[in-house]
Design brief:
This protein is an alpha+beta fold. Helices cover 34% and strands 17% of the residues.
Amino acid sequence: MCDYCLRHGSGKRWYENARNISKELATSNHVRDFCESYFSRDIHAGPDGYDSLVERISRPVMQGEQEKVDTYYRNYLHHQVVTSDDAIQLLKDANLQTDEHERAVVKLPCICRHASYGSDQAVSCFAIAFTDIYTRRFPKYLGGRHRYVSAQEAICTINNWVQTDTIVHSISALGVPYLGMLCNCDMEVCRPYIERRRLGIKSPFYKGHEAAFVFESLCVGCGRCRDLCPFDAIEMDVDDNVAQINQEACYGCGICANHCENQAIQIASYDRTNGF
């Protein structure tokens, strides 16, 4: 288990602990203060002037920035990669936590796409559980393009993405450990991931609890998984012409498995030697 599971999971993975999506936690002073600050911000819309992930990671690091960012994420924001199946289960769990009149998932503009590409991006992130308490109070956040949908509609959206897109799902604490957001990430512009890479710290964006494994007998060596992997965790064995996955580099997003036509890749639990 990761550090957050040990501290906030009560024997489970931290995002499976019902308390972390409870109204009690969502309205606690710690979460309220953070969310009011978070959703009241005025975020400038892109483009941000960078053409690639490499350029964004290569931005110079200011003195004291590493410690400042690390402290901020550890106390308030926490992002961890999950599979599409885990993302769907989280939507179901959050829906069960709410009363009938409160049941809503809020489709919000993705803050990273908004800041990097501009305000006209189609892919949304999902505020979940009781985060609508704050999105209703700050309706102009990221231009105010909020839409309240059912958990089932959000699940259908994820299932469509699984078939057609290469979106990485990450669960996000909004005031640790309140699990108030399901992010649907573009790794070219995902700010927490960029900060992890740029600053050399893990706290902004953690690897998941799963990793990908290849059934070599089913792999035809097409290389599609290598081309789609957003974390450069897959190479092709030039001798055997099969995919080789570095499980320590793999974040467990499941994109490779979702798009393998031969079902030669499995996502399974993995005990990480080098941490998350």
